[in-house]
Amino acid sequence: MRVSLIQLAVDPAAESPDERRERVAGLVRAERGSDLVVLPELWTTGAFASPHFLHEAESPADGPTSRLMSAAARDAGVWLHAGSIIEQGGEDGLFNTSLVFDPSGKLVRTYRKIHLFGFDEGEAVLMTAGREPVTLALPETVIGLATCYDLRFPELFRALVDAGAETLVVPAGWPAARRAHWTLLAQARAVEDQAYVLAVGTAGTNGGVEQAGYSIAVDPWGEVLAEAGAEEEILRLDLDMERVARTRKEFPALRNRVLGVPCS
């Protein structure tokens, strides 16, 4: 399976959300030939630009990001994990919601971020947490959806694996101050769940917070297959999807789980 991980520079001072949407649609179209393209978290506004969240909230069904990403996925003929948007959820408030489009441009899955970052400020107080883990079967693999701060909570990833996930996709807006944690946790989730991890972050600065960059692809044994630098960059790589089954068969640690529901 060929994947393209698009690490975007998100700097509100450099371009407007509408300008960024148009530019990113072009980047997605240029990835024709990939099976799966992945964008970062809240790339239209920036994950730390919380004063703009309410103004930039939109509908997953027909908002500006959804319309442009749907067309880009269709034009490129790819599965597109379009990162996440600020969803206007009506009476339920705002959500940090990921969007996945199929190669026809149809929105086939959404995921509302479960673990909201910020403790007593930012996303944690401005948004509503999602409740349900989400997986999606692609022709080559089953993906499990998570977002940024979710990476720190292994129980979510166990639930995704129990639901059949073989590839864990994590768009993020991770801060540079904790970049070491980003790399460590991506590898830890891959090792403990014997799954691919595709973790895609942002570059630049938003909300006064420097972004880490360093998007990473990790195989089911914990080996780093590709890693970006600190600036905008696209990682392209081919994944051997049989490696998940081989790893789980040759080192069947998931069978030895005692707490929770064992992976069948």
Walk me through this protein's architecture.
The radius of gyration is 17 Å and the shape is globular. It is built from seven helices and 15 strands. The strands form three sheets. Strands 1, 2, 3, 4, 5, 10 and 15 form a seven-stranded mixed β-sheet that branches. A six-stranded mixed β-sheet has the order 6-7-8-9-13-14, covered by helices on one side. It has a two-stranded antiparallel sheet with strand order 11-12. 25% of the residues lie in helices and 27% in strands. The chain has a single domain (2-250), classed as Carbon-nitrogen hydrolase (Nitrilase/N-carbamoyl-D-aminoacid amidohydrolase). It has helices at residues 17-29, 53-56, 64-76, 123-126, 154-162, 179-193, 242-250, and strands at residues 2-9, 36-38, 79-88, 94-101, 107-112, 134-137, 142-145, 167-171, 196-200, 202-203, 205-206, 209-210, 216-218, 224-227, 233-238. Helix 1 runs parallel beside helix 3. The chain is of the alpha/beta class and 264 residues long. A hairpin with a 4-residue loop joins strand 6 (134-137) and strand 7 (142-145). The model has no long low-confidence stretch (mean pLDDT 96). It holds the Pfam family CN_hydrolase. One of its GO terms (molecular function) is hydrolase activity. This is Carbon-nitrogen family hydrolase. Belongs to the carbon-nitrogen hydrolase superfamily. NIT1/NIT2 family.
